[in-house]
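agent> Task received from the user: take the single chain below, predict its 3D structure, and emit structure tokens. No templates, no multimer pairing.
agent> Plan: (1) validate residues, (2) run structure prediction, (3) serialize to tokens, (4) report one or two observations.
agent> Step 1 OK, no nonstandard residues flagged.
tool_call: predict_structure(input=
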Amino acid sequence: MTDPKRHNHYIGGEWVAATAYSANINPSDLNDVIGEYAQADAAQVQTAIDAARAAFPAWSTSGIQARSDALDKVGSEILARKEELGTLLAREEGKTLPEAIGEVSRAGNIFKFFAGECLRLSGDYLPSVRPGVHVEVTREALGVVGLITPWNFPIAIPAWKIAPALAYGNCVVFKPADLVPGCAWALAEIISRAGFPAGVFNLVMGSGRVVGDAIVHSPKVDGVSFTGSVGVGRQIAISCVSRQAKVQLEMGGKNPQVILDDADLKQAVELAVQSAFYSTGQRCTASSRLIVTAGIHDKFVEAMAERMRSIKVGHALQAGIDIGPVVSRVQLDQDLGYIDIARNEGARLVAGGSLVTCDTEGYFLAPALFADSTADMRISREEVFGPVANIIKVADYEAALAMANDTEFGLSAGIATTSLKYANHFKRHSQAGMVMVNLPTAGVDYHVPFGGRKGSSYGSREQGRYAQEFYTVVKTSYIGS
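)
tool_result: status=success, residues=481
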């Protein structure tokens, strides 16, 4: 077998080799090596930071049309290559091919959206309370930003961090998840040809302990945007705040999907299946807690079990597959561990929960659904981050709302109901950053804010025009006559 192609870092406008490389393995087929990707050491990370710092003065004051054109070029190429890039994404992360192509399309549209935002920069021109004085309120680029992204959305999340960072005049040091470097490298290669000056965008791949720590602790990095686990996020917050760097965190979720007695049963089942199990449940917005009122509970459990029998698990590139593999052996072991925990705590396994044998060796797991669970079980409290969900029976809407809010997290929450009264009340009183009415909890748009409350998020929102809150700083100027 020939050696897989090696993929290097992109630092200061050049492709830079490393002393070590790591194999990128397809979770649908463990014999499929996608490529070998560079592993940075701390010195290479510092070189990337220095390159970004050197490029910042000119880039942050550059013309907005040039920024817009470069971002639009990136978006156009991503969209033109969506099938190719979608196939790469499906191979390295395990999303089904239609989902993967959809994620790539979203990434392309994000770059195009922020190409437009470059031309919509605005401020305020106000009279002062003092005669003969005027006030200008403007936004300027934050500086050098470190972007640390997770493995579950290997092109969309990098896009929604990189595009606004560049649009508002920042320089970027980008560290993708070590598990899925392929899409990140492909995106960097597109960016490298789009017209950005050397040092404006830098890609450094490798472990969080080396690359992530070097970015987070560098005094030359003005802000860090991180999406990942709660534990790591909290450590990043401590490090950044201690040196007064700006920080933005998107972390965990234990998202509730409420099903009321008056819900359309077929619709409720379908949105619950999509929320809990599609993308193999590996989404921070997935709803792993299905909170169901007593009047519809038994019918819902029966209908869910029936619907889950038709879910097809298999190779991500195979036509007709609903759910691909779990991303890695470590994640599969975690999922299986929580299935055992739920059984031991007394929850009843209604469907799935077993390994699936396919034509290729991979991490295939039938989605697991538990019933007869209670709020104090670990399966109801802790984020599994896999295709594992449990049903909690409650008396009525008021109990359902209280149960939905009974969590340390607050990212996304959903309700299935035909009652306008309950829908409006839930929107107002749900302690989540995003609320879905008769929709899956895991579907979001790229042009509106994304983020949560409580333990799920920290700092300003991501995506849409709200992204400027993190990537810019406000300046107030007074002008006398």
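agent> Step 4: summary for the user.
The chain has two domains: 6-251+456-480, 256-437.
agent> Done.
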